[in-house]
Design brief:
The radius of gyration is 23 Å and the shape is rod-shaped. Helix content is 50%, strand content 19%. The chain is built from three helices and two strands. It is of the alpha+beta class and 109 residues long. The protein has one domain. The chain has a two-stranded antiparallel sheet with strand order 1-2.
Length: 109
């Protein structure tokens, strides 16, 4: 009886903490990738102007810039449009992007 109790204690003391620590290395990347995907999905939900189509979307989680131990999330869309850059900048002005807290900076390719 005492040997069975010692076996159970051995499992509780040594095996479970090891499994919990190892589990963090599996679960953390899954959660971070999900948050990055949700960031891209929020951008995909933005309304598109006329004569504009969504070409591709991308999401990434990781240490994307700088140094330190922070996690960064990246979400982006590539659009093809018949509108000029100025028209797109005007369309995606503060009123459209305000609920999403996305900066209104467009760049030429």
């Amino acid at each position: 009886m005492i040997k069975k109790i010692l076996k159970v204690l051995n499992v509780l003391i040594f095996v479970i903490p090891i499994l919990l620590i190892a589990g963090l290395y599996i679960i953390s990347p899954i959660i971070n990738d999900r948050v990055a995907r949700m960031t891209a999905e929020d951008i995909i939900e933005l309304p598109l102007p006329e004569n504009t189509e969504l070409v591709e979307s991308k999401s990434e989680a990781g240490k994307l810039a700088g140094n330190g131990n922070g996690m960064q999330y990246f979400g982006a869309i590539l659009i093809k449009s018949g509108s000029s850059l100025d028209e797109l900048s005007e369309y995606y002005g503060a009123s459209v992007l305000a609920p999403y807290h996305i900066p209104t900076r467009c760049t030429k390719a």
